[in-house]
Amino acid sequence: MRDILYVRDVAELLGTSEANVFQLVYRGKLPARRLGRRIIFLRTELEEYLKSLPRVRELDKGGEGR
C-alpha cells in the first residue's frame, strides 16, 4: 500500500466521486495537504480521521432505528 493517496484513490476508498472528495477537502472535513497544485492525503492521517468518526448505532431488534 502507498503512503500517499490522491483524490482518485480516496474517492475509490470511500465509494464516492472525486467531486465529493474535493468538496469535503474544501469544507475542511478531510485531512488533506497540497503538493504543488495537487491535493494529497497521507494514508495514516486519513485512517486516523476515519477511525475518529462516530460509529453508526446498530438497529434495534425491532428493525427500526432510533
Describe this structure in words.
Helix 1 packs across helix 2 (18-26). It is globular and about 40 Å long. The chain has one domain (4-52). It is 41% helix and 17% strand. With 66 residues, it is α+β, with helices and mostly antiparallel strands. The protein contains three helices and three strands. Strands 1-3-2 form a three-stranded antiparallel sheet.
The chain-level structural class is: alpha+beta
Largest sheet: 3 strands, antiparallel
Number of strands: 3
Portion in beta strands: 15-25%
Which consecutive residue ranges, at least 5 long each, have pLDDT under 50? none
Silhouette: globular
Cα-based radius of gyration, to the nearest Å: 15 Å
Q: How widely separated are the two ends?
A: 38 Å
The helix count comes to 3
**Spatial ordering of strands, largest sheet:** 1-3-2
Spell the H/E element sequence. Answer: EHHEEH
User: What proportion of the residues is helical, as a percent range?
Assistant: 40-55%
Domain unit count: 1
Overall pLDDT metric: 89
Helices and strands, with pairings:
Blueprint lengths: L3 E3 H8 L3 H9 L6 E3 L2 E5 H10 L14
Antiparallel strand pairs: 1-3, 2-3
What are its keywords?
66 residues, alpha+beta, 3 helices, 3 strands, 41% helix
Tell me briefly what this model is.
The protein is α+β, with helices and mostly antiparallel strands. It contains 3 helices and 3 strands.
